């Protein structure tokens, strides 16, 4: 399968899952979640969905549980919206890169302030 086709399917899944989370999920546990990336296998049989969560630790945990329990619904919706013989198996993965970059930013600000105080 061509790399271009895989990339198109990845982008389609990313857009559609984002729409589903934003407008269709009725689970009250699901708070603020952003799809940061989708990685599909070359044969398009499975796709890893990377999710960044916002909020307190408790809100993130609730959102994660809500998203996990909605995976079947999301897969069936993707199956209805994409023209493929096989709908990819979806798996969620936590993307903590935004949290990490915010932490680094805080450290840099703290260092700059300490340097200014000396």
What does this molecule look like?
- With 118 residues, this protein is an alpha+beta fold.
- It has helices spanning 3-24, 57-69, 71-81, 97-116, and strands at 33-40, 46-53, 89-94.
- The chain has one domain (3-116): K homology (KH) domain (GMP Synthetase, Chain A, domain 3).
- The chain has four helices and three strands; from the N terminus they run αββααβα.
- It has a three-stranded mixed sheet with strand order 1-2-3, with helices on both faces.
- α1 crosses α3.
- The model has no long low-confidence stretch (mean pLDDT 91).
- This is Ribosome-binding factor A.
At the first level of CATH, the class is: Alpha Beta
What about the largest sheet? 3 strands, mixed
Number of strands: 3
Q: Helix- and strand-based class?
A: alpha+beta
Shape: elongated
Describe this structure in a few short sentences.
With 118 residues, the chain is α+β, with helices and mostly antiparallel strands.
């Amino acid at each position: 399968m061509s790399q271009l086709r895989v990339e198109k399917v990845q982008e389609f899944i990313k857009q559609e899952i984002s729409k589903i989370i934003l407008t269709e999920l009725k689970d009250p546990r699901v708070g603020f979640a952003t799809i940061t990336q989708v990685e599909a296998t070359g044969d398009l049989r499975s796709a890893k969905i990377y999710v960044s969560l916002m909020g307190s630790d408790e809100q993130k945990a609730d959102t994660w549980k809500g998203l996990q329990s909605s995976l079947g619904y999301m897969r069936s919706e993707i199956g209805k919206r994409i023209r493929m013989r096989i709908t990819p198996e979806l798996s969620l993965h936590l993307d903590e890169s935004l949290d990490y970059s915010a932490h680094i930013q805080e450290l840099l600000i703290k260092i700059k302030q300490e340097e200014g105080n000396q």
